[in-house]
Amino acid sequence: MKRHDDQEPNPAELTLWMDGELTGDNLARVESWAKNNPEYLAEREAIQAMQSDIRSSFPASVEPPYADFFNQRILRAIEDERGDVSEQKLAIGFAAIAGKFSKWLALPAAAVAMLICFYMGTQVSLVPDPMAPVVKVSAKPAIYMPDGNVRSIY
Predict the structure, then answer these.
(1) What does the domain layout of the chain look like in residue ranges?
(2) Which of 63, 62, 31 is nearest to 44 (CA)?
(3) Sign of the C-alpha dihedral, residues 118, 119, 120, 126?
């Protein structure tokens, strides 16, 4: 049976322990558990070494401009979203204007189309061209009958 100290800590406790932020009884419990798990001790040492390198490369008096960076990104996203909305309103406005003009122009456009069709119709003639050659067909038409005994009257 495992003792209470031998149970693996939850991920939140492990993260706090590796960052050096775990305190009290939880720290003692995780430290006793880590003695039996050297891979976690090595990982903790590597993380703490990396943290000390980062701290030494940044001066303590200057904070990184994370808040400003993220605030600017948020403001830019809001402006882009507003721009999209204004572009949509502009497109809707153009569609409304185009709809009004299309209703106004529909009657004249239909009248012009009818005139063109009328003119084209007057250019078609049913009278044959007198200069066209006449082809005379002398063969009798043949009609297919599925029964061989039936004869055509032609």
Answers:
(1) 4-57, 75-120
(2) 31
(3) positive
